[in-house]
Design goal:
single chain, mainly alpha, 6 strands, 40% helix, TniQ, TniQ family protein
Length: 396
Protein backbone atom coordinates (compact mmCIF):
# COMPACT_ATOMS: atom_id res chain seq x y z
CA UNK A 1 0.00 0.00 0.00
CA UNK A 2 1.46 3.32 -1.10
CA UNK A 3 2.02 5.99 1.56
CA UNK A 4 0.16 9.27 1.22
CA UNK A 5 2.42 12.23 0.38
CA UNK A 6 0.94 14.47 3.11
CA UNK A 7 0.50 13.04 6.59
CA UNK A 8 1.07 15.46 9.50
CA UNK A 9 1.74 13.79 12.82
CA UNK A 10 -1.04 13.80 15.42
CA UNK A 11 -0.62 16.11 18.39
CA UNK A 12 -0.36 15.05 22.03
CA UNK A 13 -3.68 13.47 23.11
CA UNK A 14 -5.32 14.50 19.83
CA UNK A 15 -8.47 12.59 18.97
CA UNK A 16 -8.60 10.43 15.86
CA UNK A 17 -11.52 12.44 14.42
CA UNK A 18 -9.61 15.71 14.86
CA UNK A 19 -6.52 14.34 13.12
CA UNK A 20 -8.57 12.85 10.27
CA UNK A 21 -10.33 16.17 9.75
CA UNK A 22 -6.94 17.87 9.41
CA UNK A 23 -5.82 15.21 6.95
CA UNK A 24 -9.00 15.50 4.88
CA UNK A 25 -8.63 19.29 4.74
CA UNK A 26 -5.15 18.89 3.26
CA UNK A 27 -6.58 16.78 0.44
CA UNK A 28 -9.72 18.90 0.12
CA UNK A 29 -12.12 16.01 0.48
CA UNK A 30 -14.65 14.73 3.03
CA UNK A 31 -13.37 12.43 5.78
CA UNK A 32 -15.67 9.64 4.57
CA UNK A 33 -14.09 9.66 1.11
CA UNK A 34 -10.60 9.74 2.63
CA UNK A 35 -11.40 6.64 4.67
CA UNK A 36 -12.92 4.55 1.90
CA UNK A 37 -11.66 4.85 -1.65
CA UNK A 38 -8.46 6.70 -0.79
CA UNK A 39 -7.70 4.26 2.01
CA UNK A 40 -8.25 1.26 -0.23
CA UNK A 41 -11.29 0.12 1.78
CA UNK A 42 -14.24 0.79 -0.55
CA UNK A 43 -16.59 -1.44 1.46
CA UNK A 44 -15.71 0.10 4.81
CA UNK A 45 -18.66 1.37 6.85
CA UNK A 46 -17.27 4.56 8.39
CA UNK A 47 -18.51 4.75 12.00
CA UNK A 48 -20.47 7.81 13.07
CA UNK A 49 -18.14 8.25 16.05
CA UNK A 50 -14.55 7.78 14.91
CA UNK A 51 -13.25 8.36 18.44
CA UNK A 52 -15.12 5.50 20.07
CA UNK A 53 -13.94 2.11 18.74
CA UNK A 54 -13.18 2.28 15.00
CA UNK A 55 -12.57 -0.89 12.93
CA UNK A 56 -9.14 -2.46 13.25
CA UNK A 57 -8.90 -2.67 9.45
CA UNK A 58 -9.26 1.09 9.21
CA UNK A 59 -6.54 1.76 11.79
CA UNK A 60 -4.22 -0.77 10.14
CA UNK A 61 -4.66 0.84 6.73
CA UNK A 62 -4.18 4.33 8.19
CA UNK A 63 -0.94 3.23 9.83
CA UNK A 64 0.36 1.96 6.48
CA UNK A 65 -0.73 5.09 4.59
CA UNK A 66 0.59 7.65 7.08
CA UNK A 67 3.48 5.95 8.88
CA UNK A 68 1.85 6.62 12.26
CA UNK A 69 2.11 3.47 14.38
CA UNK A 70 -1.04 1.42 14.90
CA UNK A 71 -0.67 1.65 18.70
CA UNK A 72 -0.55 5.45 18.49
CA UNK A 73 -3.71 5.54 16.37
CA UNK A 74 -5.48 3.17 18.76
CA UNK A 75 -4.54 5.44 21.69
CA UNK A 76 -6.35 8.30 19.90
CA UNK A 77 -9.66 6.52 20.54
CA UNK A 78 -11.63 5.82 23.72
CA UNK A 79 -11.18 2.09 23.17
CA UNK A 80 -7.43 2.65 23.28
CA UNK A 81 -7.72 3.89 26.87
CA UNK A 82 -8.64 0.48 28.25
CA UNK A 83 -7.79 -0.45 30.98
CA UNK A 84 -6.16 2.78 32.23
CA UNK A 85 -9.21 5.03 32.08
CA UNK A 86 -11.94 2.42 31.58
CA UNK A 87 -11.99 -1.14 32.83
CA UNK A 88 -14.29 -1.83 29.89
CA UNK A 89 -15.53 0.75 27.43
CA UNK A 90 -18.86 -1.07 26.98
CA UNK A 91 -20.35 -2.41 30.20
CA UNK A 92 -23.01 -5.17 29.91
CA UNK A 93 -26.14 -4.12 31.76
CA UNK A 94 -25.83 -6.94 34.28
CA UNK A 95 -22.31 -5.74 35.15
CA UNK A 96 -23.22 -2.08 35.67
CA UNK A 97 -23.49 -2.09 39.46
CA UNK A 98 -20.50 -4.44 40.03
CA UNK A 99 -18.40 -2.23 37.72
CA UNK A 100 -19.44 0.90 39.62
CA UNK A 101 -18.65 -0.71 42.95
CA UNK A 102 -15.24 -1.96 41.77
CA UNK A 103 -14.16 1.25 40.04
CA UNK A 104 -15.61 3.82 42.45
CA UNK A 105 -16.53 2.39 45.84
CA UNK A 106 -13.61 0.01 46.40
CA UNK A 107 -11.03 2.81 46.25
CA UNK A 108 -11.83 5.16 49.12
CA UNK A 109 -9.83 8.37 49.63
CA UNK A 110 -11.23 10.73 52.28
CA UNK A 111 -13.54 8.28 54.02
CA UNK A 112 -12.69 5.03 55.74
CA UNK A 113 -13.22 1.89 53.61
CA UNK A 114 -16.91 1.00 53.50
CA UNK A 115 -18.12 4.39 54.76
CA UNK A 116 -19.21 5.73 51.38
CA UNK A 117 -22.49 3.85 51.53
CA UNK A 118 -24.27 1.66 49.04
CA UNK A 119 -26.06 3.98 46.62
CA UNK A 120 -27.30 1.95 43.68
CA UNK A 121 -26.93 3.29 40.15
CA UNK A 122 -30.37 3.82 38.60
CA UNK A 123 -31.25 0.91 36.35
CA UNK A 124 -33.81 3.08 34.52
CA UNK A 125 -31.15 5.64 33.61
CA UNK A 126 -28.25 3.37 32.95
CA UNK A 127 -24.80 4.34 34.19
CA UNK A 128 -22.63 4.38 31.03
CA UNK A 129 -19.36 3.65 32.83
CA UNK A 130 -16.69 5.89 34.42
CA UNK A 131 -16.10 9.25 32.70
CA UNK A 132 -18.67 8.65 29.94
CA UNK A 133 -20.92 11.61 30.60
CA UNK A 134 -24.60 11.53 29.75
CA UNK A 135 -24.32 15.16 28.55
CA UNK A 136 -22.20 15.46 25.38
CA UNK A 137 -19.28 17.87 25.56
CA UNK A 138 -17.96 19.65 22.47
CA UNK A 139 -15.14 21.88 23.66
CA UNK A 140 -12.01 23.45 22.24
CA UNK A 141 -9.14 25.64 23.34
CA UNK A 142 -9.49 29.07 21.68
CA UNK A 143 -5.70 29.38 21.31
CA UNK A 144 -5.21 25.90 19.86
CA UNK A 145 -8.11 26.45 17.42
CA UNK A 146 -6.42 29.54 15.98
CA UNK A 147 -3.52 27.35 14.79
CA UNK A 148 -4.49 25.17 11.77
CA UNK A 149 -1.69 22.75 12.65
CA UNK A 150 -3.34 21.85 15.95
CA UNK A 151 -6.29 19.65 16.71
CA UNK A 152 -8.62 18.83 19.59
CA UNK A 153 -7.68 16.51 22.43
CA UNK A 154 -9.76 13.38 22.88
CA UNK A 155 -10.03 13.97 26.64
CA UNK A 156 -11.85 17.27 26.03
CA UNK A 157 -15.02 15.37 25.15
CA UNK A 158 -15.08 13.75 28.61
CA UNK A 159 -16.03 15.41 31.93
CA UNK A 160 -12.43 15.20 33.09
CA UNK A 161 -10.34 18.20 32.12
CA UNK A 162 -11.58 21.76 32.38
CA UNK A 163 -8.85 23.54 30.44
CA UNK A 164 -5.95 23.29 28.00
CA UNK A 165 -2.83 22.43 29.99
CA UNK A 166 -0.46 23.88 27.40
CA UNK A 167 -2.09 27.30 27.32
CA UNK A 168 -3.46 27.31 30.87
CA UNK A 169 -6.89 28.53 29.75
CA UNK A 170 -10.42 27.23 30.04
CA UNK A 171 -12.02 25.17 27.29
CA UNK A 172 -14.86 26.86 25.39
CA UNK A 173 -17.80 25.70 23.28
CA UNK A 174 -16.23 24.21 20.14
CA UNK A 175 -18.95 25.48 17.79
CA UNK A 176 -18.51 29.10 18.87
CA UNK A 177 -14.74 28.79 18.62
CA UNK A 178 -14.93 27.22 15.14
CA UNK A 179 -17.33 29.89 13.84
CA UNK A 180 -15.05 32.66 15.05
CA UNK A 181 -12.04 31.08 13.33
CA UNK A 182 -14.02 30.47 10.12
CA UNK A 183 -14.99 34.13 9.71
CA UNK A 184 -11.53 35.38 10.65
CA UNK A 185 -12.52 36.90 13.97
CA UNK A 186 -10.89 36.39 17.31
CA UNK A 187 -12.58 33.63 19.23
CA UNK A 188 -13.65 33.78 22.87
CA UNK A 189 -11.09 35.60 24.96
CA UNK A 190 -8.99 32.95 26.72
CA UNK A 191 -9.87 32.74 30.42
CA UNK A 192 -7.04 31.53 32.69
CA UNK A 193 -7.78 28.31 34.54
CA UNK A 194 -6.88 28.63 38.20
CA UNK A 195 -6.33 26.16 41.01
CA UNK A 196 -7.55 23.74 42.13
CA UNK A 197 -8.91 22.86 38.68
CA UNK A 198 -5.56 23.61 37.04
CA UNK A 199 -3.80 21.16 39.38
CA UNK A 200 -6.33 18.42 38.64
CA UNK A 201 -5.85 19.03 34.91
CA UNK A 202 -2.07 18.73 35.24
CA UNK A 203 -2.39 15.39 37.02
CA UNK A 204 -4.77 14.12 34.32
CA UNK A 205 -2.51 15.29 31.52
CA UNK A 206 0.53 13.69 33.15
CA UNK A 207 -1.32 10.40 33.57
CA UNK A 208 -2.51 10.25 29.97
CA UNK A 209 0.84 11.23 28.45
CA UNK A 210 3.29 9.34 30.69
CA UNK A 211 1.28 6.55 32.29
CA UNK A 212 2.10 7.74 35.82
CA UNK A 213 1.12 10.64 38.08
CA UNK A 214 3.41 12.28 40.64
CA UNK A 215 1.09 12.82 43.60
CA UNK A 216 2.29 14.47 46.84
CA UNK A 217 2.68 11.07 48.54
CA UNK A 218 4.20 9.04 45.75
CA UNK A 219 4.14 8.36 42.04
CA UNK A 220 1.25 6.09 41.04
CA UNK A 221 0.15 4.30 37.89
CA UNK A 222 -2.31 6.31 35.80
CA UNK A 223 -4.96 3.66 36.37
CA UNK A 224 -4.71 4.19 40.13
CA UNK A 225 -4.98 7.97 39.73
CA UNK A 226 -8.15 7.87 37.63
CA UNK A 227 -9.83 5.50 40.09
CA UNK A 228 -8.69 7.67 42.98
CA UNK A 229 -10.13 10.80 41.35
CA UNK A 230 -13.42 9.10 40.49
CA UNK A 231 -13.76 7.79 44.06
CA UNK A 232 -12.99 11.25 45.43
CA UNK A 233 -15.69 12.78 43.20
CA UNK A 234 -18.14 10.26 44.58
CA UNK A 235 -17.19 11.04 48.19
CA UNK A 236 -17.67 14.80 47.86
CA UNK A 237 -21.11 14.16 46.32
CA UNK A 238 -22.38 12.25 49.37
CA UNK A 239 -24.80 13.60 51.94
CA UNK A 240 -23.47 14.12 55.47
CA UNK A 241 -26.12 11.87 56.99
CA UNK A 242 -24.91 8.33 57.42
CA UNK A 243 -21.28 9.39 57.69
CA UNK A 244 -19.17 9.10 60.82
CA UNK A 245 -18.41 12.26 62.80
CA UNK A 246 -14.98 12.37 61.14
CA UNK A 247 -16.51 11.86 57.71
CA UNK A 248 -19.05 14.63 58.21
CA UNK A 249 -16.42 17.05 59.49
CA UNK A 250 -14.09 16.21 56.59
CA UNK A 251 -16.73 16.79 53.91
CA UNK A 252 -17.85 20.02 55.58
CA UNK A 253 -14.27 21.31 55.58
CA UNK A 254 -13.83 20.45 51.90
CA UNK A 255 -16.94 22.36 50.80
CA UNK A 256 -16.18 25.32 53.07
CA UNK A 257 -12.64 25.56 51.67
CA UNK A 258 -14.01 25.23 48.12
CA UNK A 259 -16.40 28.16 48.76
CA UNK A 260 -19.16 26.27 47.01
CA UNK A 261 -22.60 25.10 48.08
CA UNK A 262 -22.37 21.72 49.81
CA UNK A 263 -22.69 18.83 47.34
CA UNK A 264 -23.02 21.47 44.58
CA UNK A 265 -26.67 21.78 45.63
CA UNK A 266 -27.55 18.12 45.08
CA UNK A 267 -30.48 16.87 47.12
CA UNK A 268 -30.57 13.37 45.63
CA UNK A 269 -27.41 11.41 44.94
CA UNK A 270 -26.59 10.72 41.29
CA UNK A 271 -23.44 9.32 39.66
CA UNK A 272 -20.97 11.96 38.48
CA UNK A 273 -21.54 10.93 34.84
CA UNK A 274 -25.26 11.79 35.11
CA UNK A 275 -24.68 15.33 36.40
CA UNK A 276 -24.90 18.37 34.15
CA UNK A 277 -21.55 19.90 33.10
CA UNK A 278 -21.76 22.84 35.52
CA UNK A 279 -22.33 20.49 38.46
CA UNK A 280 -19.51 18.23 37.28
CA UNK A 281 -17.13 21.19 37.28
CA UNK A 282 -18.18 22.12 40.82
CA UNK A 283 -17.52 18.54 41.94
CA UNK A 284 -14.09 18.65 40.27
CA UNK A 285 -13.40 21.92 42.09
CA UNK A 286 -14.26 20.27 45.42
CA UNK A 287 -12.16 17.21 44.60
CA UNK A 288 -9.18 19.43 43.77
CA UNK A 289 -9.69 21.30 47.02
CA UNK A 290 -9.70 18.01 48.92
CA UNK A 291 -6.42 16.99 47.27
CA UNK A 292 -4.81 20.19 48.55
CA UNK A 293 -6.25 19.89 52.05
CA UNK A 294 -4.97 16.33 52.45
CA UNK A 295 -1.54 17.22 51.08
CA UNK A 296 -1.04 20.15 53.45
CA UNK A 297 -2.37 18.25 56.47
CA UNK A 298 -5.47 20.37 57.00
CA UNK A 299 -7.65 17.26 56.89
CA UNK A 300 -6.76 13.65 57.58
CA UNK A 301 -7.93 11.13 55.01
CA UNK A 302 -8.64 7.56 56.07
CA UNK A 303 -9.24 5.94 52.67
CA UNK A 304 -7.30 3.09 51.08
CA UNK A 305 -5.58 5.48 48.67
CA UNK A 306 -5.04 8.35 51.11
CA UNK A 307 -1.31 7.67 51.49
CA UNK A 308 -0.73 8.69 47.86
CA UNK A 309 -1.77 12.25 48.73
CA UNK A 310 0.26 12.79 51.89
CA UNK A 311 3.87 13.96 51.45
CA UNK A 312 6.37 11.54 52.91
CA UNK A 313 7.48 12.59 56.39
CA UNK A 314 11.22 13.18 56.43
CA UNK A 315 12.93 13.13 59.83
CA UNK A 316 15.43 15.94 60.43
CA UNK A 317 18.65 14.67 62.00
CA UNK A 318 18.95 15.85 65.61
CA UNK A 319 21.89 13.88 66.88
CA UNK A 320 22.80 10.25 67.40
CA UNK A 321 20.28 8.17 69.28
CA UNK A 322 20.44 4.55 70.37
CA UNK A 323 19.09 2.22 67.69
CA UNK A 324 15.44 1.46 68.50
CA UNK A 325 14.50 -2.08 69.37
CA UNK A 326 12.85 -3.66 66.36
CA UNK A 327 9.96 -5.94 67.16
CA UNK A 328 8.49 -8.66 64.99
CA UNK A 329 5.60 -6.42 63.86
CA UNK A 330 7.98 -3.81 62.43
CA UNK A 331 9.98 -6.49 60.67
CA UNK A 332 6.80 -7.95 59.18
CA UNK A 333 5.75 -4.51 57.91
CA UNK A 334 9.14 -4.05 56.27
CA UNK A 335 8.81 -7.42 54.54
CA UNK A 336 5.32 -6.58 53.26
CA UNK A 337 6.50 -3.21 51.94
CA UNK A 338 9.46 -4.88 50.21
CA UNK A 339 7.13 -7.45 48.60
CA UNK A 340 4.82 -4.70 47.33
CA UNK A 341 7.74 -2.67 45.96
CA UNK A 342 8.94 -5.71 43.99
CA UNK A 343 5.43 -6.53 42.76
CA UNK A 344 5.08 -3.02 41.29
CA UNK A 345 7.86 -3.74 38.80
CA UNK A 346 8.02 -7.55 38.51
CA UNK A 347 5.17 -9.49 36.90
CA UNK A 348 6.11 -12.85 38.45
CA UNK A 349 6.43 -11.31 41.91
CA UNK A 350 3.00 -9.68 41.53
CA UNK A 351 1.47 -13.02 40.50
CA UNK A 352 3.04 -14.82 43.46
CA UNK A 353 1.86 -12.13 45.87
CA UNK A 354 -1.69 -12.34 44.51
CA UNK A 355 -1.65 -16.14 44.90
CA UNK A 356 -0.45 -15.78 48.48
CA UNK A 357 -3.07 -13.18 49.40
CA UNK A 358 -5.92 -15.19 47.89
CA UNK A 359 -5.05 -18.63 49.24
CA UNK A 360 -7.82 -18.40 51.83
CA UNK A 361 -10.44 -16.87 49.51
CA UNK A 362 -13.56 -18.93 49.04
CA UNK A 363 -15.61 -16.56 46.88
CA UNK A 364 -14.90 -14.67 43.68
CA UNK A 365 -15.91 -11.39 45.37
CA UNK A 366 -13.28 -11.91 48.07
CA UNK A 367 -10.66 -12.77 45.43
CA UNK A 368 -11.47 -9.55 43.53
CA UNK A 369 -11.20 -7.51 46.74
CA UNK A 370 -7.62 -8.74 47.24
CA UNK A 371 -6.82 -8.12 43.57
CA UNK A 372 -8.27 -4.59 43.83
CA UNK A 373 -6.15 -3.95 46.94
CA UNK A 374 -2.92 -4.76 45.07
CA UNK A 375 -3.99 -2.58 42.16
CA UNK A 376 -4.83 0.23 44.59
CA UNK A 377 -1.32 0.21 46.09
CA UNK A 378 0.34 0.57 42.71
CA UNK A 379 0.71 -2.95 41.27
CA UNK A 380 -0.05 -2.68 37.51
CA UNK A 381 -3.38 -4.25 36.61
CA UNK A 382 -1.84 -6.30 33.80
CA UNK A 383 0.49 -7.91 36.37
CA UNK A 384 -2.53 -9.30 38.23
CA UNK A 385 -4.13 -12.39 36.60
CA UNK A 386 -7.83 -13.09 36.98
CA UNK A 387 -9.20 -15.97 39.03
CA UNK A 388 -9.72 -17.94 35.83
CA UNK A 389 -6.15 -17.38 34.71
CA UNK A 390 -4.95 -18.72 38.05
CA UNK A 391 -7.17 -21.78 37.72
CA UNK A 392 -9.29 -20.87 40.76
CA UNK A 393 -12.33 -22.85 39.67
CA UNK A 394 -13.14 -23.44 43.36
CA UNK A 395 -14.40 -19.91 43.93
CA UNK A 396 -18.13 -19.56 44.42
Amino acid sequence: MRRWPLHPQPGPLESLSSWLNRLADLYEMPVKELLTRNLGLVDLAVPADLDYDPPMAMLTALAERTGVEFARLRAMTLAGWEPWLFDKLTVPIQDTQPMFDAYVRDNSVLLAPGEAGRNQVNRWKRWPGPWLGAWPLHRACPLCAADPGRGRALVWRLPLMTGCVEHGCRLEDATKVALSVAVGRDGPCPVPLEDPLATVDRYIYEGLTTGRVSLPGRSVHAGVWFRLLRSLLDEVSLSLSGRTSHGRATLEQVWQAASREERAGLTTWRPYEHLKPDLQETMLHAAGTALRLVADGTIIAFGRLASTLRPEHRHIYDGDRPAPHRNSWQEAMDQIEAALALARTDRDAARQLLVLLTLGCRTLDRFEEQRAFLFGVGVPVDFLPSAGELGRVDLA
